[in-house]
Amino acid sequence: MASTIYVVRTKPGVIFTVIAPGGFDLLSAIALTAKEIKHDLTITSACDGEHSGPEDPHHRGEAYDIRTHDLLNPEHALQTLLLHLGPRFYAFLEDPGMDNEHIHCQVAKGTIYPPEAT
Known about the structure:
Layout: E1 8-10, H1 21-37, E2 41-45, E3 63-67, H2 74-85, E4 89-94, E5 102-107
Parallel strand pairs: 1-2
Antiparallel strand pairs: 2-3, 3-5, 4-5
Helix pairs in contact: 1-2
């Protein structure tokens, strides 16, 4: 009997122009979350889309948006993701209850990732 594999998917048109080190760790945490909640997770925005300007972490490859409207419990997915991300990252449920509801995750504001060696 084959086991079910849960993966990270992307919405058509999502562009990964650059993936920063923090972006790779975000992808890893998203993949671990998909396996733990036993549900595929779909990235709906990476470097593409309308964001808050040229310094937005999406454009630096340090932020992703994840679809929630297909999840039974978006809050559980968010909490699981936060456990896998750790303190140098930030994630929240953006536009809860609205058509545009999604999980936004990124390297925490003001954080240099990876930390500079001392």
